[in-house]
Amino acid sequence: QKEVEQNSGPLSVPEGAIASLNCTYSDRGSQSFFWYRQYSGKSPELIMFIYSNGDKEDGRFTAQLNKASQYVSLLIRDSQPSDSATYLCAVTHGSARQLTFGSGTQLTVLP
Amino acid sequence: DAGVIQSPRHEVTEMGQEVTLRCKPISGHDYLFWYRQTMMRGLELLIYFNNNVPIDDSGMPEDRFSAKMPNASFSTLKIQPSEPRDSAVYFCASRGAGISYEQYFGPGTRLTVT
Fold first, then answer.
1. Spatial distance between the Cα atoms of B23 and B68, rounded to a whole number of angstroms
2. A50 Cβ under 8 Å from any chain B Cβ
3. Which of A62, A82, A97, B57 is most open to solvent, judged by the fewest CB atoms within 10 Å of its CB?
C-alpha cells in the first residue's frame, strides 16, 4: 500500500469555486504535512504546511489536518485559472523527517 | 536570497554515457535531497545528506547511480553508464534546521537518454 494517497483526479472546478484536495497517509508517526504546487514543467513549490490538528489558513488556502483519521486536505477558495497545477501532498517520516510524496492531483480551474 | 540552483537544466545524452547533475543548496541549509520524478513513479527520494554526509541511499535505483557532497554548497548525482530508463526530471531540494521540516526545490534537470 502506498504510504501517501491522493485523490487521483483530474479535478476540474469553475473559476470562483472552492477546490478540495484530499490526502491520506499510513504512518501514524508522521508529524508534519505539506502541500506543494507544481506547474507543468516546473519544480514543486511549497504552499503550506501543517502539524497540528485543525485548520490553518493562508490567504485563499486552508489546510486541514485530522491525525486520528490520518487525513489532510487543502481547500482553495475563489479558485483562479492560475491555480491550475498539480498539487502534491507530502508527509514526514523517519528519523530525519524526510518527505514522502503522494502521486499528486491535477487541478484545472475553468474560466 | 538565491534558491536551490541546479545545472544543467536540460541534458540529452546517449545510452552508455556518463551523466553528472549538479546542485547548490540554499546557504545555511544542512540537509540536501535528490529526487527523481517520472510520470509512472511520481516523485521518488533517491538519497539525502546531512551536513555533507550521506544518510540514506536506499532509494538509489542501482549501482550505476552515485552521489557526493564534498562541501556544504555543492552536490553531484552521477549516472554511469546511463540508460534510456533513466530519463526523468531530477530535482535537488534543501532543508534548514527548523522544526517544520519544509524542503525547497531547485528547478530540476530534465535528463533524456537516447
1. 10
2. no
3. A82
